[in-house]
């Protein structure tokens, strides 16, 4: 492995080393990645990572230049994957025609081939109770809480009324306990989802099995499991190159940054950061 860089000017930010003894300066890390670009996967979370946060989840679009840059990245490394709590159909709508692997609903659904979405079978029995709870949330929670029903999970948003946080969390936790669901916290949101052995960590652990290099860009608490998946692989395979990139924000930023190797100020900085890598990542010729 190349030596650790302690700091590196990048995108107007200083990239400061995190807890992992990896090549953490962007330049040296891109160079290490270029040496195995044909064996490298880049993972991206969606909201807060590739797209700026907004009050209305349906209105969210990717940050400027993200579509072009992610499309170009697919020609530079073996695989580019999105790992998100959004449904696959939503992710596909923001990246039409781009050859991405899409993992939606924390990996409960995946699209490896365009148009064919597969659901994680153990989650299916939860569809009825999740739909029921979405209706119940609309009836029982204050009107300022935005209920986002996503087929196998339901997100309860309180961004427009942060003072409702405790009320919403208490309601969600009570329903999770009563119905054997899992409550996942995020940025001004708590989500009820099936209590199955599938999250961003297990998705990433599975995908990296036949890769020797992976980058993960994330901003939220659900992304920490994915960071850990890279760390766990590195602990048993010291030659594995794993790079965790925290995309900053005032809500979950500190916790995510503490677990990361590199830090970017927000979604708008991601395309510029990736374009720098293109100088050393040659176009990948598929075998
Ligand atoms: O895994 P992700 O792609 O990061 O999805 C996490 C949640 O993202 C969305 O909510 C977040 O973004 C909204 C739009 O900017 C914002 O209003 C909200 O406060 C954020 O939590 C999405 O709506 C959720 O379903 C996802 O769980």
Automatic annotation (TrEMBL):
Lineage top rank: taxon: Bacteria
Pathway membership: Glycan biosynthesis; trehalose biosynthesis
InterPro entries for this protein: HAD-like_sf, HAD-SF_hydro_IIB, HAD_sf, OTSB-like, Trehalose_PPase
Biased composition (Basic and acidic residues): 7-22
Enzyme Commission code: 3.1.3.12
Pfam families: Trehalose_PPase
Protein name: Trehalose 6-phosphate phosphatase
Gene Ontology molecular-function annotations: trehalose-phosphatase activity
SUPFAM superfamilies per UniProt: HAD-like
Family to which this protein belongs: Belongs to the trehalose phosphatase family.
Catalytic activity as recorded in UniProt: alpha,alpha-trehalose 6-phosphate + H2O = alpha,alpha-trehalose + phosphate
Gene3D superfamilies named among the record's database cross-references: HAD superfamily/HAD-like (3.40.50.1000), Trehalose-6-phosphate phosphatase related protein, domain 2 (3.30.70.1020)
Protein keywords: Hydrolase, Magnesium, Metal-binding
Cofactor names: Mg(2+)
